[in-house]
User: What shape does this take?
Amino acid sequence: MNAQPRAYRTELSILAALAACMALTRLHHFDALPDASWAVFFVGGYALRRSSAWAFPLLMLLAVAVDVWVITGQGISFWQHYCVSIAYWMLIPAYFCLWAGGMWLARQADSGLKFILKGTASLFASVALCQLLSQGSFYWLSDSVAHKTLSGWVDNYLTWLWPYLQSTALYVVAAAIIGTVFRAILRHQPHTAQV
Assistant: This one.
């Protein structure tokens, strides 16, 4: 089997799985599940780094489409929603921070504990930067926050950083476990000869 088409199919499968995970959790169909979007962009950067030119924009478009669907489905104009302002467009560089963190981690040649430590640091830094851009822009640029103060912003940033870090880390760990299991299964499958 030609390696190039197989790699392309693998990337499309990963993209489809990430898109489904983000769509299902971002729609809030399952209230018990937190939004997986941040983890999706981190894992996407790791697993789809060679296809960043098309994979990142597609996932970004999906995120916006889901938001539009959910907000307008409530009978609210997209731009009238509490969470939407000019700061909404800062989600692009914010999510790219997560993507870049995943890309950086994928380039590390380490394994074992060293890789886990680098992964933890990369995930923390990526989430912290994403939170800085998304929350910071919302706080300072949105009309939804009436009284803007530096201490209020810091308090808001720190209040939301841990929940986002926690949910993102849980999804990333789950993705790592699933990826490890699939790689093990593929390694133990016999290769069929082409006819």
Notes: The longest helix spans residues 150-187.
